[in-house]
Amino acid sequence: MTSRGPRLRRATTLIAHWKKDQLVFENYFTRRRVTAAPLTLLVLDFFSRWRAPSEFFSRFDNYARPSLALALHQLTQRHFLVREGSVEARRDALLEKVWAPWLPAAGMLQFETRNLRYESNLAAVRRQFQQRASEVAPPSPVKHYREAPQFSLPAPQQSGAFPQVLLARRTWRRFTKRPLRLSDLATLLNLTWGVHRWVKLPGVGRLALKTSPSAGARHPIEVYVLAVNVAGLRRGLYHYAADRHRLELLKRGATSRDVVDFLANQWWYRPAAALMLMTAVFPRNQWKYRDSTAYRTIMIDAGHVCQTFCLVATWLGLAPFCTMAFDQVRVEKELGLDGIKESVIYAAGVGARPSGVDWAPWPHPRTWAGITGS
């Protein structure tokens, strides 16, 4: 790093914390983490705005020039400092522009959890859970106040179409090769993500109304469809235009291998007919809600939408599933997303049910030793 090098600035997504007796510096967007001396705080603070290396050398002239140059080189290599005009600097500027009201709390959760590793060997997972249960019993799935007065309730109404659909909803993990009907896909998309009414808000604009609730009617969730086995629809990657009830083809071609690759090697979803990749358009909520706690509303919105999807699929006699395990970077690259303004946050899918069963959780139940899923 020469004294005449490009100007530098501290990255937006930096935090410092202590882990036992070590001071840790972390860029939670790039997931780079190092331990360093407290003096590093002074260096990073100096670069709170764009500064040339020569300014840094003058400010810290009581230190040897080679050691200062090495420090700048290392901080830049680890993306704690960004060079003016670089790809990292442009990305950092976009992060600051879009996410500023929600940093650092929401940003840490959103970006720190990208591309986690998932275990797809069911036998290995079973052994891990058995080992954990042998050490610490799992918490009870229900809660009671045993000393509180108790009141019996009338029997719940479970007859009728809606209760039966609700009771039949399960996460399926086995499917037949029968194609998904295009009419069923259309119904799934429309009843889950489609805009059904518009409401005018004076001085603000139109608000979309859908079948699932959304904080402030912002509806940040978009859906992209990986169509693998849909009758009457060519294989490919599509975006669903919720206001027009149309599919917009983004990329031709799709295979069952894509399903597995997108879903972090969860091979049991390979025979699914279609995969729904849900994204969040963060500026929709950030425009209205300036506090980072609003990040929760996006996660809750995704849950609302996914439950609606699963219920509609169950009503149609299909086999739905949903998962939080996916290769975020790979999916966003395929969708052409920057991961900052719009990012994939949830995945769901659907296939045809295998005949003669009410629920098929795992392709090989013996490997799961009775742990049946949701």
How would you describe this protein?
This protein has helices at 39-46, 53-59, 65-77, 87-99, 105-112, 122-135, 161-168, 182-193, 256-262, 282-288, 295-315, 328-335; strands at residues 8-10, 14-19, 22-27, 32-35, 81-83, 180-181, 197-201, 205-209, 221-227, 230-231, 236-241, 246-252, 274-281, 318-323, 342-352. It is α+β, with helices and mostly antiparallel strands. The chain has two domains: 8-112, Alpha-Beta Complex (Outer Surface Protein A, domain 3); 159-368, NADH Oxidase, CATH 3.40.109.10. Strands 12-11-9-13-15-14 form a six-stranded antiparallel β-sheet. α7 packs across α11 and α8 (182-193) runs antiparallel to α11. The longest helix has 21 residues, at 295-315. The model is unreliable at 367-373 (pLDDT under 50).
Topology:
Elements: E1 8-10, E2 14-19, E3 22-27, E4 32-35, H1 39-46, H2 53-59, H3 65-77, E5 81-83, H4 87-99, H5 105-112, H6 122-135, H7 161-168, E6 180-181, H8 182-193, E7 197-201, E8 205-209, E9 221-227, E10 230-231, E11 236-241, E12 246-252, H9 256-262, E13 274-281, H10 282-288, H11 295-315, E14 318-323, H12 328-335, E15 342-352
